[in-house]
From TrEMBL:
Residue spans crossing the bilayer: 35-51, 63-85, 91-111, 123-140, 146-165, 177-195, 207-226, 238-255, 261-279
UniProt domain EamA: residue ranges: 10-135, 148-279
Protein name per the record: EamA-like transporter family protein
Organism name: Rhizobium rhizogenes (Agrobacterium rhizogenes)
PANTHER family: EAMA DOMAIN-CONTAINING PROTEIN, INNER MEMBRANE TRANSPORTER
Keyword tags: Membrane, Plasmid, Transmembrane, Transmembrane helix
Topological type in the membrane: Multi-pass membrane protein
């Protein structure tokens, strides 16, 4: 099994790729159409592992739990976040709001999960938030309060999924779990896709490229590593890794779209790293 540090590094890279996927999807006819077919294709790829697990015996509790996780961590997080950006929330600001997840997760981890957050971790949470603020520049743009509320609800949806997954551990293997979550997400995205112009895919290179990007990097890579890390560490620690995604997203943007990286982004990135290093799990917490 790979060391946790390697899994965490992979999680940061893969999770940040979702913002790039949104940029790629924005060049297609419908972002919701891309997200719908993303989960349809992932479901088709992973369903053999789900069927195999069901033949071996899959408790109803696992089916329900993984369905709930898919509804919150995939559908809720993405649908609300994408709609907020569509209504005018700048991508950088959306990343900043998403980076509030560790604060909310840490606040709930104590009373719900009995995870102790020590002084070092509290300092790390603060440094992480400060680093993200420096990295994204803090521009709020001209979106409505409703749009920002959707962005906040998107983050809360992922926090709820994280707390549920940690509070109700499940021994279902990763691939069958992702299959169930993706099937639920595809079903929930279907009506949004229909309302947004139709459900039939566009077979142009931009559409295919965006769907493929989301499948490889954001779904299998991002969510797969998220659940693996959560199973081996604390919810607070895994949540703190989200602090690194906005700066890493900027690196993605520089490499793929030649977007400039400012000095404040570099300083913010360094501050984020220090904050995450301070977020080591408390001894005895798993």
């Amino acid at each position: 099994m790979l060391p946790l540090a390697i899994l965490e590094a992979g999680l940061v890279i893969a999770w940040s790729s979702g913002f790039i996927g949104a940029r790629l999807a924005a060049d297609t006819t419908s972002v919701f159409l891309v997200l719908f077919w993303r989960f349809v294709v992932v479901s088709l790829i992973l369903v053999p592992w789900l069927l195999r697990q069901m033949r071996r015996g899959l408790p109803a509790r696992s089916l329900i739990l993984q369905s709930v996780l898919g509804a919150f961590a995939m559908f809720g997080y993405l649908a609300l976040g994408v709609k907020a950006i569509e209504l005018g929330v700048p991508v950088g600001t959306a990343a900043l709001i998403s980076a509030l997840q560790p604060i909310v997760t840490a606040a709930l981890a104590g009373p719900v999960l009995q995870e102790r957050v020590n002084r070092s971790q509290r300092i790390g949470l603060g440094l992480g938030l400060a680093g993200v603020s420096l990295a994204v520049g803090g521009s709020l743009g001209g979106a409505s309060l409703w749009a920002y509320s959707l962005s906040g609800a998107s983050t809360l949806s992922l926090v709820i999924a994280t707390i549920i997954a940690k509070a109700l551990p499940d021994n279902t293997p990763l691939l069958p779990s992702l299959a169930m979550q993706s099937i639920v997400s595809a079903v929930l995205f279907a009506p949004l896709t229909l309302l947004n112009g139709g459900i039939f895919p566009s077979l142009g290179p931009r559409f295919i490229g965006a769907v493929a990007w989301f499948i490889l990097f954001s779904t299998i890579g991002g969510y797969g590593l998220y659940w693996l890390c959560l199973g081996r560490s604390t919810a607070t620690r895994v949540g703190s890794l989200i602090y690194l995604t906005p700066p890493v997203t900027m690196i993605w943007g520089w490499l793929m779209f030649s977007e400039p990286i400012t000095m404040s982004a570099i300083i913010g990135f360094v501050v984020c790293i220090v904050g995450v290093l301070l977020m080591r799990p408390v001894s005895g917490q798993r």
